[in-house]
Amino acid sequence: MSNVSLLPLPAHPTGLSWPTDDWETGEPGTHVDRARLDRLVDHGFGSQTGPEMGETHALLVVQHGKVVAEHYRDDFTAASTFPSWSKAKSITQALIGILVREGKIDIHARADVPEWEDPADPRHAITLDQLLRMSSGLAFREEYTDQAPSDVIEMLWGKGEKDTAAFAASFQLEHAVGSSWSYSSGTTNIVARCAARALGASGAAFEKFMRRELLDPIGMKSAEPKFDDAGTFIGSSFCFATARDFAKFGTLYLRDGVWDGKRILPEGWVDYARTPTPQTTAMLEADGPYAAHWWLERGGAGSFSANGFEGQFTIVVPDCDLVMVRHGKTDASLGPNMKAWMADVVDCFRG
C-alpha cells in the first residue's frame, strides 16, 4: 500500500506553545461557519438526550493548535474523564511505535505469541503487522449485545478477563492468515501483550513505560490505563482520560509523532497508521475503511480517527489542521446519524 497518497501533516504553528501543560484557547477563525456550528452544537447538546443521536457528553475542537470550541453536557466538565473504549487501540498502536523506535520490536516479523510457538500451527506465521491491520484470520466474534454470542464480552467480563491476551490467542483461524479483514478487540490485547514481552515488563512496570515514553511527554496527566490480572494493558478498551487529553493524543499524530521538538513515534509511523488495509467492498460499506489500529475518513477524505464503542471519537483532520474529540452514549443503531453530525461539525471549520 506504499503507493497510497496521504495528505501532508501540518507543522505546529510557529510561536504557539505546545499544550503539554494546558491548551491555549481562541475563537473560531473567520473562515468558520459560526451559524452552522451553533446549530450543530444545539442539535448535539440542546435536549441533553435525543432520538437521533443519543447523548453527547463532550465536544472539543482544536484547530491550528488552539481549543476553539468546547462544550459539555450539564453533568460533565473539562475535568471529567471519559471512557476510551476502543480508542485505546490507537494508544496501543502508539506504544508499538515507540518500541519500533527503540529497536525492540519488528512489526513484519512473526508475532511473539507463546500459544502459536509450534511451527506446525497455522497461526505461527501471523505477523504483528497483520494483527495491527486486523487481518490475522483469527475467529473472534466482536458482538456487543447479550442476545448474540460475544467473544469480546467473554474476554472483558467473563472467563477471559484475568488474562485477556491468552483468551484471545486461544482462537483458531477462520480465514487464511492475511487474507481477510475482521475487527477484533481480542487482536489488540494480543498486540498489547506482544508489547509487554518485547519490553520485558508488565503490570506496573509497563504502565511506568507508558507514562515515561508517551503519556507524560504530551501531558496526558488524566490518563488511566487498566490492566488485567496477568499484567497486560487492556489495550482493546480501557484508558480513561479527559477530552482535552484525548485531543493531545490526536495532536501527537497530527504532528507526525513529534512533540515540542522531540520525536516520540518513529518517522513514518503515523503514515503507517493511516495507510489503508485491504477490505472487501461489503466490509467497507458496513464498517468503513480501516488502516492500522486507526479508522479512516470519519472527518472527511484524508482524516483518520481513534473510535470507541457508543460514540467515543478522536478525529485527526490534516487538511484543516484540526483535531475533534466527541464523547457520549450513542446506540449503534444511531451511529450513522452521529457520524454525519461529526462530519458536519468538521466541515464548519473548512471554510
Tell me about this structure.
The chain is of the alpha+beta class and 351 residues long. The protein has two domains: 34-85 and 240-348, DD-peptidase/beta-lactamase superfamily (Beta-lactamase, 3-Layer(aba) Sandwich); 88-199, no CATH class. It is built from eleven helices and eleven strands. It has helices spanning 34-45, 87-101, 128-132, 151-157, 164-169, 185-199, 203-215, 243-254, 269-273, 281-287, 335-348, and strands at residues 55-63, 66-72, 81-82, 224-225, 239-242, 258-259, 262-263, 295-296, 304-308, 312-317, 322-329. The protein has a six-stranded antiparallel sheet with strand order 2-1-11-10-9-8, with helices on both faces. A three-stranded antiparallel sheet has the order 3-5-4. Strands 6-7 form a two-stranded antiparallel ribbon. A hairpin with a 2-residue loop joins strand 6 (258-259) and strand 7 (262-263). Helix 1 (34-45) packs antiparallel against helix 11 (335-348). The radius of gyration is 19 Å and the shape is globular.
